[in-house]
Amino acid sequence: MKGQNKLFFAIIIALVLGVAIGGFVHLQYPESAEPFSKNIKLLGTVFIRLVQMIIAPLVFTTLVVGIAKMSDIKMIGRVGTKAMLWFISASLVSLFIGLILVNWLEPGHVTKLPIQDAASAEELIKSSKGFSMEDFVKHIIPKSIFEAFATNEVLQIVVFSIMFGVALANLGDEYAQPVIKLFDVIAHGILKMVGYIMWFAPFGVLGAIAAVVATNGFEIFKVYAIYLRDFFFAIGVLWLVLLLVGYMILGNRLFELLRRIKSPLLIAFSTTSSEAVFPKLVEELERFGCNNRVVSFILPLGYSFNLDGSMMYMTFASIFIAQIYGIEMSIGQQITMLLVLMLTSKGIAGVPRASLVIIVATCSMFGIPPEGIALILPIDHFCDMARSMTNVLGNALATSAVSKWEGQLDNHGGDM
């Protein structure tokens, strides 16, 4: 754990330095803020790309090995059913918490936001046009596994990996074992790479934070104080619910789990990408004592179906935009919107701003001006920090809970 603590403190120092450097540039050299932001942001870009580089092969190898090693198709079905029940329940709870709190706190009625130029939202609006069931199906089923690898489409890789893993499980040991062993070695080799890549995380954090503070300064916190206050309160309520459920299932081991995943949580918070910590989360959950077959099966599914923070944000932000424009929505309309979000959000990648595209598409469906997304774009970075961290917590709890239900959670996790 000593190495973990060093990394954790290095990230904290980078976070503080990032705010300080960004603030200094914004206050002392405002004319240089834009080019400075563009250049220092490259540190964050390098870190994210290093992680993205290993996402596809790691998901593929761990999931195939996990399913093939199960060999019992009934077990695959049982674990998958438990996971999906958790995902659906957690998603509905997250959406309802966002819906209830945005109606109670009404940030859109009390906050006087400056009307943003809709041009800033054009790219998001364009990318959400033409959403249909056909697009949804195409997003799930890969046309080519190589295309899915090239574009890091986690859900498509998951679909192919499950089918391939089930096929290997039914092939017989004589044929399957050499392939399983090869993929197992590759998976552990990639996990070894994770250790090297994570030491670049502090630089990525420094670059990402310094860039956003240099460009927006500290004023952005004042202008959007109410919205941020209400949203972070809602995230706090969601955390409380998740941790209570986690404690009911894991008992005192919940605190050990939180200690294990503190670095992934902080990295997700700083880089606004839950995808960035996927490899490290796999490693820490196995060290915590989760069965590696369960981890490799559930965690990739969770990254497509169990984004609790993003789910809560979708209802919160959608109703907030409606409030800003003075659009009153009935309880029936809001429940319908919740169910639409429940369906359309499945499979969104755990990358920055993915949920905004879904919000724009949903607003269009319910007669809310999609240009309203421009109102929250300036502070979306800070909201994304909280929801990315919450996504990581939700997936860690889901994996640990299913491991416990399967009787495959070791009392004492060890080093890999």
Could you provide a short overview of the structure?
The chain is mainly alpha-helical.
Description:
The chain is mainly alpha-helical. The two termini are 12 Å apart. The model is unreliable at 111-116 (pLDDT under 50). It is globular. It contains 20 helices and no strands.
Spell out the key features of this protein.
single chain; about 425 residues; mainly alpha; 20 helices; Dicarboxylate/amino acid:cation symporter
Give the overall form.
globular
What gap, in angstroms, lies between the N and C termini? Answer: 12 Å
Helical fraction: over 70%
Strand content: under 5%
Low-confidence spans: 111-116
Described by its quaternary structure, the protein is single chain
Overall average pLDDT: 80
Protein name: Dicarboxylate/amino acid:cation symporter
Keywords: Cell membrane, Membrane, Transmembrane, Transmembrane helix, Transport
Subcellular location: Cell membrane
Membrane topology: Multi-pass membrane protein
Describe the protein's topology.
Blueprint lengths: L1 H27 L4 H38 L2 H33 L1 H4 L11 H7 L4 H8 L4 H6 L3 H16 L3 H26 L2 H16 L2 H5 L1 H26 L2 H8 L1 H10 L6 H11 L3 H14 L2 H17 L6 H14 L9 H12 L7 H33 L11
Helix pairs in contact: 1-10, 1-14, 2-8, 2-9, 2-10, 2-16, 3-12, 3-16, 3-17, 3-18, 3-20, 5-19, 8-16, 9-15, 12-17, 12-20, 14-20, 15-16, 16-20, 17-18, 17-19, 17-20
